[in-house]
Amino acid sequence: MMSEISRCRVPFEALLLLLCFWAASITGSEYLKYKDPKQPINVRIKDLMKRMTLAEKIGQMTQIEMTVASADVVENYFIGSVLSGGGSVPATNASVETWVNMVNEFQRGALSTRLGIPMIYGIDAVHGHNNVYKASVFPHNVGLGVTRDPQLVKKIGAATALEVRATGIPYVFAPCIAVCRDPRWGRCSESYSEDPAIVKAMTEIIPGLQGDIPPGSHKGVPFVAGKQNVASCAKHYVGDGGTTKGINANNTVIDFHGLLSIHMQGYFSAVIKGVSTIMISFSSWNGVKMHANHDLITGFLKNKLRFRGFVISDWAGIDELTPIPRSNYSYSVQTGVLAGIDMMMVPYNYTDFIGNLTMLVNKNFIPMSRIDDAVKRILRVKFTMGLFENPIADLSLSHQLGSQEHRELAREAVRKSLVLLKNGKPGQEPALPLPKKARKMLVAGTHAHNLGYQCGGWTITWQGTSGNNNSELQSWML
Q1: CA–CA separation, 463 vs 73, rounded Å?
Q2: pLDDT digits over 1-23, tens only?
Q3: Is-contact 319 329, C-beta < 8 A?
Q4: 0.85 exceeded by pTM
Q5: CB of 343 closer than 8 Å to CB of 312
Q6: Dmax (CA) of the chain
């Protein structure tokens, strides 16, 4: 009798699945594996992918600027991501609530689509949440590098993540892990050091932003711990700090061994630490534009290093693949996508990008397998960070923006980043320490009494600002 009962026994998992189908039939809804957080991520990706049309897949590969975005645009074009460029804000001195409401409005457009795939909002938070009024600002990477303190940088990453999340944003275009080899490069302030070992050590900011990757995790798989963390973006892949004469977006002339030993060190570490995304550089390597470099993007980063997050272009990066930007846009789209770029920071002419990519797929210039690879990677990051379960932001972290704790951390970073370049003339008494009885001290130079210059670029606006009368800057310095 018992053996007959055993043969009839239904496994618990099968019974649970039957109950799900029964409940779905009663409510008239279909059980969707991709919406079930208990399912493995790969199962959710596979289930969602088989439901998606070409238009929905290409939408996921499209990132647009917030000034051209709306809930209707996101819904109608299935937009996968929206961003704020440098200085792009919902309003002057925008409050936390204004930011959250804006992001949620775009998100509601995404959730209104047939499949309800959430969009991911991104922003440059390169030395704190630097676009946002009353946020904490930290020293630029060039200052943090000289602290030689990876744990301090990790704390700064965690603080930045909290402040970014406070405004409803789950994705940052940071850290920059360029190795600046020529001080004439105008973006050396974004580089931790000319020494690749220091840059590699400072990738500890990634687990600060994203959370510590669990022990035993597979190499190259993206990781975001939860709602108090953000997806990060290592940039700009690769060699952006090694261009000839330090000219921005120029050509980096170096052999493969030199590229690996100098400019790739930070990426080795970033991939191991579970970085979610990697941004491609405007620059070239030995004459080949990085946005067109299949060997380094697909061959090395994706296949050799087994990076499983998504690759994103720089701002209108593929436009620069022709001598005259956008002079042959269909060629630029084809070249960039075939090189292995998964998401295009368009950022404005999204209908052109979507139209050209659709045409290229329909005419078999780009195989469907390449589109599917890109979309799987984008969905993997979205599932990993819990965006499907928690797409709508709230104000629960609003107290974190510009908190006293974060400002004290910024002050600590400033103290540790100070560098004495020269202590008096050789053979003479050192200038430091200063005599305790000194009545006056002269601080000279254009930056000596200028809050804007002290904060540098990527502060309020892309290029930063000058002066001491700006209330936005003063709010940071209190």
Answers
A1: 29
A2: 444 444 444 455 555 555 555 55
A3: yes
A4: yes
A5: yes
A6: 102
